[in-house]
Amino acid sequence: MLVKMPRARSLSALLVASCLMMPLTAMAQSTSSQMEGLKLSNDQPIQIESDQLEIKEQEKTAIFKGNVSVIQGTTSLKAGHMVVHYKSGGKSMTAGNTDIEKIDLAGGVLLNSGTQQATGDTGSFEMASQVFILEGKQVVLSDQQNVFVGCKLTVHANTGEAHLEACGGRVRIQLDPKSQKPKQ
To answer: What region holds the Organic solvent tolerance-like N-terminal domain (predicted)?
Structure first.
């Protein structure tokens, strides 16, 4: 099923969070860093595809099931299951004029933007706070040959700040020196 979401700016914040890579400089129990963030135009269309779509007006949810794919520009999101929670206010979801409150992702999550990729088991995005969380047995962030591994990634889309937590041990980072931009 293909559904075009008319409120592109509502999901573009989720896709902003998918730009997750910037060399992290420390290895410890957890790692924090500033992240650049993806600059998307609010007027770019968002395409959503899934095997099924169930809209529950009373519960203010849209449930996308099976092979969920979200694409905006060069950024894509894939998951097994996505639940979009809308704010109450008497507006109909099918009319396309509702505001998104929260997005929950499950069944394996893959975020892609150019050379950058993030994977985890589950994810969520809170619209009001602009916080994206990706969790799993192993959350893997990669940008070409640079790889970051932990269990929970929290990205504050407003500030670009990111925090990667370990899986009871340590955060693992592999940096390729050839990937560093030369200083000018």
So the answer is: 47-160
